[in-house]
Amino acid sequence: MTTLPTGEQLTAAILRDHWKPTRDRLVREDSENDLRVRIHRACAALRQGERAESDGTAEGQDASIVFRWVALNALYGDWDWDAGMPARDRQSLDRFTSEVTRVDTEKRIRQTLEAHAEDARALLESPFLIERFWRDGEWDQIRPRRGRARTFNEELRDERTGAALHRILMVLYFLRCQIVHGGATMGSSVNRVTVDPAARLLRALSGQIIAVSMNQGLEMGWGELCYPPVPGDALS
Predict the structure, then answer these.
(1) Which pLDDT does position 140 carry in this prediction?
(2) Owning domain of residue 20
(3) Is 118 part of any domain?
């Protein structure tokens, strides 16, 4: 298996080439089908994110954030058998971030977060990505929450990478919800102050998280795969 660079953007093509030897072995052994599906879906969504942003437009950048989040969702998504539907995102993310950082012996995620610390700070200090702001809109009440960036830096310093990753993913998730649910105009110039740093950070982070899942996925505790592939004759 080839060695992938750390802390920087990894394209879908690079990741697929890296994964192919492991994938082919697992196919021959007829094992780890769920992991193979997760990786396949993640890389497919990552590729769509690259295509979306390749036109250089603000709309493409917004779409890229959504697709790159889909790539992450393909990895962390977990099926809730009791509810008969996917588990709540925050619950699944909490489990996934703990697992993916636990096995990340190369410290890919930590290095990526450190390399994009300024973008992370911009997102964590933005009042527009805080739920409380939209409930009351009073900056004086929001100001104390700016300590999130300080806490994030302390978590990285103390090598609590799982906590730092979860913190920044929650902010990115808030922005993703704004875009997906029509709470922001696609390509709007108004929200570039949050979209620009989010796009840069997610561009590097999504690929590195996929890389960890490829390299150490067999050591991770995965939940149940959501919507597994169904053979074509299953309903015949």
Answers:
(1) 55
(2) 12-219
(3) yes
Share of the chain above pLDDT 90, in %: 73
Euclidean distance between CA atoms 114 and 167, whole angstroms: 14
Rounded Cα–Cα distance for residues 191 and 130 (Å): 14
Q: Is residue 230 part of a domain?
A: no
> Is there a domain that residue 110 lies in?
yes
Nearest to 49 by CA among 147, 41, 92: 41
pLDDT tens, position by position, 84-140 = 999 998 899 999 999 999 999 999 999 999 999 999 999 999 888 887 777 776 655
Report pLDDT digits (tens) over 219-232.
Answer: 999 999 999 988 76
Structure-token match 């995965």, residue found: 222
Count of structural domains within the chain: 1
Question: Cβ atoms within 10 A of the Cβ of 182, count?
Answer: 8
